[in-house]
Every structure is written in structure tokens, then in C-alpha cells.
Amino acid sequence: MVAFSAQGHLNPMLRLGKRLISHGLHVTIATTHLQPGRRLFKPSSSSSATGHDIDFLFYSDGLDGRKVDIDTFMDSLSQHGPTNLTKLIHQNYHTAPSDANNRVSNPFVPWAANVAHDLGIPCAMLWIQPVALYAVYYRYYRNLNPFPTLTDPDLTVNLPGLPPLRTEDLPSFVLPTNTFGAFSKLFSEMFGAMEKHASWVLANSFHALEADVIINSSKDLFPVVPVGPLVDPSLLGKGEEEEADGAVNLWEVDHSCMEWLDEQAAGSVVYVSFGSLATLSADQSASLERALKEGRWPFVWVVKGTEAGELSTSSGGGQGIVVAWAPQTKVLAHRAVGCFVTHGGWNSTLEAVAAGVPMVVYPQWSDQPTNAKLVEDVFGVGVRVRENGDVKMVVGSEEMGRAIREVMDGPKSEQIKGNARRLKIAAGEAVAAGGEGTSKVSVRKFVDEIVGR
Ligand code: UDP
Question: Which of 39, 128, 155, 228 could cross-link to 148 by cystine, CB 3.0-4.6 Å?
């Protein structure tokens, strides 16, 4: 497996790797060296059914540890990655590269499919965002539908299997205001490599969650096969987080919040986390902090790195606890947690779905606005933060508090909680070991093809 070295990319790849190991395959993950000062906190021992561990191999991104902006990083990676990955494969598969039976790459390393093709290795792609995003990007980059432009910035996008998407619901990379050129290039390359070389596109989603868009995309676009949720619902909250679900952490996990959670009433706690990349501005943090105080909700808040010390709530009279990196799946599975305030990253969203925890989504960029739309209007398991009905980057504390209340105990909360309970069951059924769930069956078919059954 070839993974982009970001937390949100490594987690689904590792989790898929663990699934494949449980079917008797051997799994190696190749990724680039991580940024300077960042360690990879790998599970100390593998809990895989076969006793095999996932091996890690590292190749160079050509930057020798230099810190650069994302566009320069992506350029360097696509310039040096193919040669360095090819070398790595030759060094590690001594007889013939085709000893590696199949390569699974994720979308941010689109050239990995070309490397696989040149070495004669069959290739699959793991789509790590919802199938809805796959449909949006595919249709955008292949010019299959009109999207907003500078002259028509408010155009509503109507796609099969999805509710009408307004500008505020679209991923930031398809908007005319997008300033990240690297991502446009990347997605175009990815769809090109996928159509030429991929035999499978697997997705971290499940049929019951996105049935309409899965059916439509598989009919009209390159077929996509859901194999998720890759986080294992049956293991959520059991044992140490890293070992329970196969994830690795780029930051050291602070488990101190677990004992504190044990002392809180069922469904009373608000868990706040914005994933590994997004950071809130001072104004956004201040609104949220005030909302939590005014609402008197006990909370666990992930504030990465040194910013933790700056948050006044860290000494906030026992109402809440601030950690730099939480054992997220364990926190979500804890009976005390009643609401997840999230940026709407897809891993976090699926983890909350698998744990049955309703969400307040405060999306920042990338796929997050679309994920927020799905959570609110398709899955019905949460609300998006708004101010007077409008989407804003900074909302007041009253609006923030209103969104949390809506999920915790407002008039719609029973319906939202009921949907969350139903989807949790469906998530478990899709992947249950020994079962015939849709995702479980798809993984088995994929493995059968790899081993030539
Ligand atoms: N995560 C974690 N501890 C934290 C915050 C996040 O383990 O304190 C994990 C979370 O469980 C998820 C991943 O980091 O698997 C974040 O991925 P996501 O797609 O939600 O967001 P991204 O970081 O890519 O924006």
C-alpha cells in the first residue's frame, strides 16, 4: 500500500491493511518520511488475527526534511516519488516486483498507479473521502456538470443521488476562489491514472450510508466499491485505541481524559476536535469556549501542540479537559459523550457514525463543507453551525451554543439521536466479522482476486 503521510490518510490505509491481514494477506505500507520533529507512533504490537504485523517502508519526498509550503511539497513528491518508490520496490522485492501482488494507493499519490503499471503490478485505489466527494470531483474534473465560476459563483450543483449542492456545500477545491493549485493538478492526474491503470476503486464508506450516490456513481462513472467503515465498529472503545483499530498516531496520545470521562453522566459530554490539520482562529476558539461555558456542558477539547497552554479553559474549574491529542475512537465510544463538535474530516465523521455519536459540524475547507451537508441532510445525524441561517467562518457563541443544544436536547435531538443509533447498527452490519454485510463481502471479493481464487 502506498500512503500519503498525513494522519487522515494513514488511518484508513492502516485499517484497510488490517482487514486484508485478517484475510491472510501480507501488508506493507510505503510512505514518505514524515515531517521533521514528527514521530510515527506505531502500535506496539499487532493485534491482527494472523499475528502478522503491517510492515512500514519509507521513501524520500526529495526534500531532505526541509519544511515547505504544500504546493512545493506536492511538486517535490510527484517529481521524486515515482523514482524513489520504484527503487524501494526493487530493493524490497528481490526476485521480481510482481511478487507484490497488488498495490493499493490513495488519491494524494496518483503517480503510484503509474509506477505499479510500469512494474506490471495490478493496482487499486482507496478513496478516503465519502463517495459523494468522489462523484463531485469526478464530475468537476471531467467537465460532466456545470459548477460555479467567477461569473456565476452562486450556481447550485445538481448531481444524481445527492441533494442540490449550494456553493457553501461544495468542497473548497472546486470553487472559483480555490487558491491551492496543487490540488487541481492532483485530482486531474488521479482520475487519469485511475482510469488507465486501476482495476478497483475501493471507498471508505458503506452502502446503507450513501446508497443513492453509490448506485449512481457506479452506473455513470468509474465504479466504486465501498469497503467501510474501515474503523472497526466492533472494536470501538475496546482496549488501547491504537491497537484496537489499527491506527497510528503522528502525535503522542494523551489518555488522561478517559478517567475523567468515567466520572461524567451518560451522554452529557461535548467532545471537540478539528482533526490533524485544521486549527481554529482566536475568534473561532473564543466563541466556542464561551458557548461551552454558557451551556455548562462538560467537555473534552483537543487543542494541538503548544496552543493547548493558551486556552483558558485548560484551567477552567473542572468543567472540561483539554488534551493535545486524544484517543479519539475511545472517546467517541465512551458512554459519557453525547455530542461531537468536529471539522467534519471524513475519518472523524465515519468514526462518529460508527460510534453512534451525533455531530455539530463546523467545516473549515476541503471536503468538510460537503461532509457537513451529508451529516445534516443525508445521514440526519447532526447539524452544521450557522449564523442566522448563513454559513460563516466565525460564528458567535450564541449560535455555536444553539447548534450544540439542538443535538444534545433540542426539539430535533431525539430524531438525530435515533438516526445516529440506526446508522451505528448499519455500520456494524456492513463489516461484521463472519457476516455477509456489503462491505465485508466486497473485501472478500477483492482478496479473492488478489490471490487468484
Ligand atoms: N484523531 C485522533 N486524536 C485526536 C484528533 C484526531 O486520533 O485528538 C484522529 C481521528 O480519530 C481521525 C484522524 O485523526 O482518524 C483525523 O482524520 P480526519 O479525516 O477526521 O481529519 P484530518 O486530520 O484529515 O483533517
Answer: 155
5 lines ligand 1 (CB under 6 A): no
pLDDT of residue 400: 96
Measured in whole angstroms, how far is the alpha carbon of residue 185 from the centre of its chain?
A: 21
Which helix (DSSP H) or strand (DSSP E) does residue 332 occupy? Answer: helix 328-333
Pocket of ligand 1 contains residue 59 by CB under 6 Å: no
What's the pLDDT at 48?
Answer: 39
Rounded CA gap, 430 and 439, in Å?
5
415 vs 365, residue with greater confidence: 415
Beta bridge partners of 359: 340, 382
β-bridge pairing 225-226 and 198-203: parallel
Q: List, for residues 117-133, the tens digit of each pLDDT value.
A: 998 888 999 999 999 99
| pTM, rounded to two decimals | 0.92
CB-CB contact of 23 with 227 (8 Å): no
d(CA 393, ligand 1 centre) in Å:
21
pLDDT of residue 101: 61
